[in-house]
């Protein structure tokens, strides 16, 4: 029979990787809790119009990267390409986004974009993101950026570089957009086909193009900072001041733009040095018009998303040790299985990470396997042990044997206790 393969750009997460995922997620949860954000879980599918309306019809995502399909009743649905639009929708529906009330939310889950897969770029990938809805003050910007930096730091990415910029707002951006489009038109013969298309529809993206020719031309393009209105300029200056106060290192990158239309004012991105072309590990920005655009009150908002696969790639060399089992229980014959099963269940109840081996291997091969598992203790139960009512507990770290009573469930919890005192951690629910 022909093997069925997984879908291109959709990856499995197998043990070792999944343990690293869980480890990173735990670190992120701890930071998000310290900042007092509440977790929100939204479905992976939304009505297509949610993304079309919020991200902008002319963005790469909406134009060519969304997984869109008709439900059986004809409703057009899309697998979410990002988290913010869905979080805003859900917050509005749950009554969390209201005047006089600030919603601080975070999410974790898979996102879907039909991009060309390469290192660090998948079609299904995972993001952890945070959103603050209902604050337009620069302190909110500084806190969200600091949260992003602290999240990455908790994952071991202290060295990643934070770039920030202001994109202006509805008052000043149109004039900048026009200036940029005019500059692009004056150099249209050097621009790539993609950028020519962007000229009229989304000229800000000219700054984002990776083509060598475009980059060279855009190096002299007008900068948004020379077009900011006074309120945007003051806002950005205050964000910079507060980031310095928080001791967060950053670099102002006047050419930083973001892929989505809804961003205004503060935009930011964090780059990791060791990732090659896809080097952004996280990014975000302010989206003050989005809540109203989605039918809610005129509330400001700001947020970011971190790409978990990229965090894992960037920290791959960090020497993460997946947890090894603590105890390997080895019934040396089928007669020993009942005692082994009972003992293993008791140890697992206490939260110890245990392996239970198939019955009937030789001591030698069982010990080889215990070595390979890197367990601390091998518990051998054979004919002798059954007769004596005592298991052999081999401490592989100290190369010492103990003979301990097997009766663990009623009057003699000696073995369990001894394993505990010898240093098996176990969980807290014992
Ligand atoms: P964005 O929503 O495009 O700002 O992306 C936020 C973060 O998600 C990026 O900085 C990346 O770390 C990650 N990311 C975005 N697109 C992909 C992708 N196709 N594959 C893997 N990670 C991605």
Write up what this structure looks like.
The chain is built from 15 helices and 16 strands. It has 430 residues and is α+β, with helices and mostly antiparallel strands. It has two domains: 247 residues, BirA Bifunctional Protein, domain 2, CATH 3.30.930.10; 95 residues, Anticodon-binding domain (Rossmann fold, 3-Layer(aba) Sandwich), CATH 3.40.50.800. It has an eight-stranded mixed beta sheet, with helices on both faces. A five-stranded mixed beta sheet has the order 13-12-14-15-16, with helices on both faces. Strands 2-4-3 form a three-stranded antiparallel beta sheet. Helix 12 links the parallel strand 12 and strand 13. Helix 1 runs antiparallel to helix 5. It binds adenosine monophosphate. Adenosine monophosphate binds next to strand 6, strand 10, strand 11 and helix 11.
Descriptive terms for the model:
15 helices; 16 strands; BirA Bifunctional Protein, domain 2; 36% helix; alpha+beta; 430 residues; five-stranded mixed sheet; 2 domains; binds adenosine monophosphate; Rossmann fold; eight-stranded mixed sheet
Strand proportion, as a percent range, falls in 15-25%
CATH topology call of the largest domain: BirA Bifunctional Protein, domain 2
User: What gap, in angstroms, lies between the N and C termini?
Assistant: 48 Å
Mean residue pLDDT: 91
Structural class, please?
alpha+beta
* CATH classification class of the largest domain: Alpha Beta
Compute the number of strand runs.
16
| Strand order in the sheet with the most strands | 1-5-6-11-10-9-7-8
Looking at CATH, the homologous superfamily of the largest domain is Bira Bifunctional Protein, Domain 2
Number of helices: 15
- Give the tally of structural domains: 2
Bound molecules: adenosine monophosphate
Cα-atom Rg, whole angstroms?
28 Å
The amount of helix comes to 25-40%
| Unreliable residue stretches | 408-412
Largest sheet report: 8 strands, mixed
By CATH, the architecture of the largest domain is named 2-Layer Sandwich
Which overall shape is indicated by the principal axes computed on the Cα atoms?
elongated
